[in-house]
Specification:
Layout lengths: L6 E5 L3 H10 L5 E6 L2 H6 L6 E5 L4 H11 L3 E4 L6 H14 L3 E5 L11 E4 L2 H8 L6 E3 L15 H4 E5 L3 H10 L6 E3 L6 H10 L4 E5 L7 H11 L2 E5 L7 E2 H11 L12 E7 L10 H9 L2 E4 L1 H5 L8 E3 L3 H10 L5 E6 L9 H11 L2 E6 L4 H8 L8 E4 L7 H8 L1 E6 L4 H11 L6 E6 L7 E5 L1 H4 L8 E6 L26 H11 L6 E5 L5 H7 L6 E6 L2 H13 L5 E5 L14 E4 L6 H11 L4 E6 L2 H13 L6 E5 L2 E6 L2 E6 L3 E7 L8
Parallel strand pairs: 1-2, 1-4, 2-3, 4-5, 5-12, 6-11, 7-8, 7-10, 8-9, 10-11, 13-16, 13-17, 14-15, 14-16, 18-19, 23-24, 23-26, 24-25, 26-27
Antiparallel strand pairs: 19-22, 20-21, 20-22, 27-31, 28-31, 29-30
Length: about 675
């Protein structure tokens, strides 16, 4: 039976406490909400049935309060590190016979917050530490130290603090603990001294006994929290309690809550640009939202950057995975999505926001951040309104080719082969004189910003976070297509001549994000021309001649192209597994013209075709195919070109073979103009 009008005490000051108070708000249940600080008070929603008290309450005050108020239930949602407060609440509840529920924080990820692991004995502590990594600061005394020898890498991981007595130091040394791994010192130890020692040994974990106030336990707990170190506590059973979700379910089962104002609406999601790396570059609006949120979601690097907010986190970067997690945790009402850098420059914010809005239960607001671009250009004292911007995160980029066209370009990247890839492109295009500015680990302690050349930078291994800006003052690449025949490596393989190629590429009418099949690609002159028009154009060069395939690879490397995929094989079979084309250029079909066109139309009925032909028989085959397949009336152009050749003091015009250029497209294709 539900209690229509009950009395509940909530010890809050945490995300869990705020969520519980929000669920109680607006109901007929009278709730006293206790927080330690004025700031914590501001976090609690305002409602007539909620009475919020700020200030610390000791065990005696709690006992007196519980006797006077006669609560139907006490909810302890204090922080995991507030072990003394939790003990006081438990003692007072037991003495007054008041029902108590302890709300435990879910372990969402190892990096979500400082954690307390409670174990019954020293052996259990060692067993737990076997599952972890990183230095361990042990404060259990010399008598228990031998148990840690069971750790596989104890010599490098364990740092012990023991009493400063000669016999104790000797005992520890005999076990193998000495030098920087042994601290002999008499307590008591203040919080700041504990913090300094843990930071000195780069501790990830601290092992201690629950020794009470006299043993400095409170100082150890607060120091571990301040240092961001996990705490392994020996001497009491693992804490018992229920999850936040179970706590809400208990309230809804036993009390007449109705629907609170907060839970009746959509859940709030703030997609926050976290800046270049350091928390100091978060915007004021971002900090405000992070302070008030229930959960932080995002990629591991981004959420770990925000550890000082001491919020639960869920580490994931896939939008669907994040949305599924949020759907499974309806108790979380206010969520911050941690997005690297700014939210508008190669950011996951757009995809995550779209996925959440499609789910229908979320309102999404974007909080922009300071981008790596703006920060880096400020550091090198350069404007960036003229620079072409790229990212190599999860994609390739024709960086060098664009630099030769625009004169300046910037790219986000990182990883061991980042510099080698970019500098290799520059060297292949003969751009060794490019001036480079590199930035590594921007805004972090190990930030480096320096000037370089392609030769000096190519062998350097970049960290996972790196950017590069390049300036080119040499000859620019023309905006129009029409690369000279002499620029290509040709060998004995036929090649579409510049004049024919120029008209054919124009006839293709490529757009951004086009997918082009170059069937019978030969040396790759058409593939190179089309791929060089835009980084977004994806070219599949299909060629059966092994010599031509080698030349294709050579020419794509020569022009530093990353958006050409070479397919060794014969059409139409070689086209079967490729993405649907938007455009097809056919320079040779090995007598299978109709089959090639039919397959492309099957993949995309709106495909646009440009075909080059040099024999009447081939022309007849194309026109016959156009009669039987669902395509528009072919447009025919006969192109005859002649080039001058100097003979003595005169110039003779040397004619080239005439070429038919045939253009058509799928019948359902809408006009492009």
């Amino acid at each position: 039976m539900k209690i229509a009008e009950g009395k509940i005490a909530v010890f809050a000051g945490t995300t869990e406490g705020r969520v519980l108070a929000s669920r109680l708000a607006g109901s007929q249940v009278a709730a006293d909400v206790f927080v330690a600080t004025e700031y914590g008070k501001e976090e609690i929603p305002k409602a007539e049935n909620l009475q919020v008290h700020d200030g610390r309450v000791d065990e005696n005050q709690m006992e007196k309060l519980f006797q006077e108020k006669k609560y139907d239930l006490i909810l302890d949602a204090t922080h995991p590190f507030a072990v003394v407060v939790t003990a006081n609440i438990r003692e007072a509840a037991e003495k007054t016979g008041t029902p108590l529920l302890r709300i435990l924080r879910d372990k969402i990820s190892d990096g979500s917050d400082c954690r307390i692991i409670t174990v019954e004995n020293i052996q259990s502590a060692v067993d737990f530490l076997k599952t972890t990594e990183g230095p361990v600061f042990v404060t259990t005394g010399s008598k228990e130290l031998s148990a840690f020898l069971a750790l596989p890498d104890w010599e490098t991981r364990i740092y012990a603090r023991v009493l400063s007595m000669p016999e104790v130091v000797k005992t520890c040394a005999d076990m193998g603990f000495y030098g920087s791994h042994l601290i002999a010192m008499q307590g008591p130890f203040a919080e700041d001294l504990n913090v300094a020692m843990m930071k000195a040994v780069h501790a990830k974990w601290m092992v201690t006994k629950e020794s009470g106030k006299a043993g400095g336990f409170e100082e150890k707990v607060s120091a571990a929290k301040k240092a961001g170190v996990g705490l392994v506590v020996i001497g009491r059973p693992a804490e018992e309690g229920i999850s936040l979700e179970e706590g809400i379910a208990y309230l809804e089962e036993h009390f007449a809550l109705g629907r609170s104002a907060e839970n009746s609406g959509k859940r709030q999601v703030f997609l926050i640009g976290t800046g270049p790396g350091s928390e100091s570059y978060l915007t004021g609006e971002a900090k405000k939202r992070l302070d008030k949120c229930d959960l932080i979601v995002g990629a591991s690097r981004c959420v770990r950057q925000l550890e000082s907010f001491h919020k639960p986190v869920f580490e994931a970067y896939q939008p669907e995975k994040i949305a599924d997690y949020l759907d499974a945790h309806p108790e979380v009402q206010v969520i911050c999505g941690a997005m690297s850098g700014d939210t508008g420059f190669y950011s996951a914010a757009e995809k995550l926001g779209a996925v959440l809005e499609r789910r229908g239960n979320y309102t999404v607001e974007v909080i922009p951040g300071i981008s790596s671009v703006g920060y880096f250009f400020a550091k090198i004292r350069r404007p960036w309104d003229h620079a072409k911007l790229f990212s190599m995160h999860g994609q390739a980029a024709n960086f060098a080719l664009e630099l030769k066209r625009s004169g300046s370009a910037f790219i986000l990247g990182g990883g061991a082969d980042f510099y080698e890839t970019i500098c290799g492109q520059l060297i292949d295009l003969g751009m060794q004189e490019t001036k480079l500015f590199a930035g590594e680990n921007l805004t972090l302690k190990d930030e480096q910003i320096f000037e370089a050349t392609p030769e000096s930078l190519t062998d350097r291994k970049a960290p996972s976070l790196a950017v590069l800006y390049a300036e080119w003052t040499g000859p620019r690449r023309p905006l129009s297509h029409g690369i000279s025949d002499e620029a290509f490596t040709r060998g004995n393989v036929p090649m579409t001549k510049m004049e024919v190629r120029t008209v054919s590429v124009a006839k293709l009418e490529l757009t951004e994000n086009s997918v082009l099949y170059d069937v019978g690609a030969g040396t790759g002159s058409v593939s190179v021309e089309c791929a060089g028009l835009s980084d977004s154009v994806k070219v599949y060069a299909i060629e059966k001649n092994p010599e031509a395939v080698e030349l294709l690879h050579e020419n794509c490397k020569k022009f530093a192209l990353t958006n050409v995929k070479i397919i060794a094989g014969t059409a139409p079979e070689a086209l079967e597994d490729l993405p649907a084309p938007t455009h097809v250029f056919i320079g040779g079909s090995s007598g299978k013209m109709e089959e090639v066109i039919a397959l492309c139309l099957k993949k995309n009925p709106e495909t646009r075709f440009v075909v080059n032909l040099i024999t009447p028989e081939s022309l007849a085959a194309v026109l016959e195919a156009a009669k039987t397949l669902p395509v528009t009336e072919p447009d025919l152009v006969t192109l005859t070109a002649a080039r001058s050749k100097k003979v003595g003091s005169s110039h003779l015009m040397m004619g080239q073979n005439p070429v038919w250029i045939v253009t058509f497209e799928g019948k359902i294709c809408v006009s492009r103009m």
